[in-house]
Amino acid sequence: MKKVAVIMGSDSDLPVVEKAFAVLEEYGVPFEVHVFSAHRTPVEARDFAVNAKKNGFGAMIAAAGKAAHLAGAIAANTTLPVIGIPVKSSTLDGLDALLSTVQMPSGIPVATVAIDGAANAALLAVQILAVSDDELAEKLSQARAKAAAAVLEKDKAVAGKYNK
Ligand code: RP5
User: What is the pTM for the complete model shown?
Assistant: First the structure.
């Protein structure tokens, strides 16, 4: 199975990004974690992105806060799908990172999830790998069915209480 790369701009992003690790582990998807910054270590970030496809990666997740250019800088150097996580790490509550990550110029897409949306970033990476992996696709379907059943249980409880 192809690996997922999880890159963050700083180790201070870890508390957010760890939620992605949990999802990838749940689905048995191999992943590799790095701290590379578009601004502080641009050469390492670039080199990793340039070599990612030949090193066995199938999707890349990049998390950064503030002027969050990491996902875009990674995307500029690979044709692998890149998922951006804007991290809430400043006085602007993550809106700065959201806009910096999502507003990519046409030609170089970054699939941007919600502010601090690490779990969805990992799920999207799993879905990308599942396009060519039926077993993974089946696991995703089962998880969706389980989640739907849990919501229907809640509906039963709430409706039973208020709908007389
Ligand atoms: C960004 O700046 C990082 O992704 C992090 O969210 C933010 C702050 O980094 P530190 O100053 O905590 O290292 O590049």
Answer: 0.96
